[in-house]
Amino acid sequence: DRGSQTLAHVAVISGNRNILEWLLEKKPSLVHSVSGGHKNLAYWAAMARKHDIFEWLLKKEPSLIHDKQGATLAHIAINRMDHDVLEWLLEKEPSLIHSVDNKGRSFAHAAWSRDSLEWLLSKKPSLIHSVDNEGSSLAHVTLKEEEEWPLAFCLGGNLDILKFLIEKEPSLIYSVDSRGKTLAQMAAGLPYLDEELDFILEKEPSLI
Predict the structure, then answer these.
(1) What's the CA gap between 94 and 51, in Å, rounded?
(2) β-strand pairing of 34-35 with 39-40
(3) What pLDDT score does 181 carry?
(4) What is the pLDDT of residue 205?
(5) How far is CA 117 from the centre of its chain?
(6) Which tens digit of pLDDT belongs to each residue from 115-170?
(7) What is the gyration radius of the CA atoms in the chain, in angstroms?
(8) Closest of 32, 30, 43 to residue 76, by C-alpha
(9) Which of 45, 62, 105, 125 has an alpha carbon 20 to 30 Å from 31's alpha carbon atom?
């Protein structure tokens, strides 16, 4: 349909496993169909709380747990602010709490709002120390340029999240990535991060 939902999506949402199995038998490629922005069949099963279909789908096609960039269903849930879905996912698949994408980013990196990040850290406080494969902390991520990662809406300057992170964990002000870049150096490198740079240097003048 117009929302790119296939018959397989409809079967998942309605909980009709018999129809879903028949559809995938007739057209196996439907198992990888996506609708609503990164939401594959397994994600829709989680949203609809269809546990039996969720487990059946992951058994049939384990790769549905993540997308092409390695972002897991947990990354997508926190990014969409689907907190209920994330809790359900972690209950069914506890190992997702440790999930990272192809670049080593935890699902804390995918939280695009302060509310989402605050909620997530209340569930798993240690995620505030997450770093990716480049050694970038969550604070670094708020200062990075936009990149081809649809889930990273906190990129490109997010003062609200930066302030929240530093208030929550003051030591993050001294974060240095694998290239030796401090938060101040990151902010100074982009012309539109003046407010972020002012905040960082006000908090820690020694970074100048």
Answers:
(1) 14
(2) antiparallel
(3) 93
(4) 95
(5) 10
(6) 888 888 888 899 999 998 989 899 988 887 655 455 554 555 578 889 999 999 99
(7) 19
(8) 43
(9) 105
